[in-house]
Amino acid sequence: MPFDPSQLTYNADGLIPVIAQEKSTGEVLMLAWMNADAITRTLETGHVTYWSRSRNSFWAKGATSGHVQHLVELRYDCDGDALLAIVHQEGPACHTNRRSCFFTAIRDGEQVELMKPME
Amino acid sequence: MPFDPSQLTYNADGLIPVIAQEKSTGEVLMLAWMNADAITRTLETGHVTYWSRSRNSFWAKGATSGHVQHLVELRYDCDGDALLAIVHQEGPACHTNRRSCFFTAIRDGEQVELMKPME
């Protein structure tokens, strides 16, 4: 059956959460948001394009930094209200220059830094 | 530094998105939501407890189905507005009885089912 972005469920701002996962390692890199047009752009270009809530504009990941996310596959969940983008990430995914945005763990009530910025 | 759930950023409904990832395989299982109290319950009990937006109540994953998520580690992202729960999932994570909720891929504009319900 053909896919149409309008079949998904968006929040009041017209956005849906997107998990980016690195294909080669399985590492979860980040969580960001897309609107229907960002989904279409992502599928058409093969470069993951989010909607930036802070800048209120499309955010072609890596367009400025070079840290592009090449789309391997886009999946959606049983409720149609979340996306999983399997990607090949160039360089760090995080704006702090870390591989993943999820670099802080909670262990025994303490915050533990799991990784350092990449060189 | 001690962790306090109040340091995280919640949406207008007081919720934060949570990605559940299976420790043993790296598979992304689902995306759901927590409020600050659900985070505290999850950390205290070691059983992942979400906030159900449809039932407007705590949702101790597996309390009814037996498909418990044992917390291995809770992480949060650079902006403090998303969580990653590394878990050991008992049985299927999805209410459709599939391992993961992300069982549909978009390939060449078509929807492709990636996995069948577990026996």
Describe the structure.
Two copies of one chain form a homodimer. Chain A is mainly beta and 119 residues long. The first copy, chain A, has a single domain, classed as Ubiquitin-like (UB roll) (Roll). In chain A, 8% of the residues lie in helices and 38% in strands. The longest helix of chain A is centred in the middle third of the chain and has 10 residues. Chains A and B meet through strand 1, strand 2, strand 5 and strand 7 of A and strand 1, strand 2, strand 5 and strand 7 of B.
What does this entry show, briefly?
Chain A is mainly beta and 119 residues long.
CATH architecture of chain A: Roll
Domain count of chain A, please report it.
1
The fraction of residues assigned to DSSP E strands of chain A is 35-45%
Secondary-structure class of chain A: mainly beta
Can you identify the CATH superfamily of chain A? Phosphoribosyl-AMP cyclohydrolase
Cα end-to-end separation of chain A? 45 Å
* Tally of separate helices of chain A: 1
- Low-pLDDT ranges of chain A: none
Main sheet characteristics of chain A: 4 strands, mixed
**CATH fold description of chain A:** Ubiquitin-like (UB roll)
Mean pLDDT of chain A: 97
Overall geometric form of chain A = globular
SSE string of chain A, helix = H, strand = E?
EEHEEEEEE
Overall number of strands of chain A: 8
Cα gyration radius of chain A (Å): 15 Å
Sequence of strands across the biggest β-sheet of chain A: 2-1-6-5
Query: Most extensive chain contact?
Result: A-B, 37 and 37 residues
Assembly state here? Answer: homodimer
Helix content of chain A: under 10%
CATH class of chain A: Alpha Beta
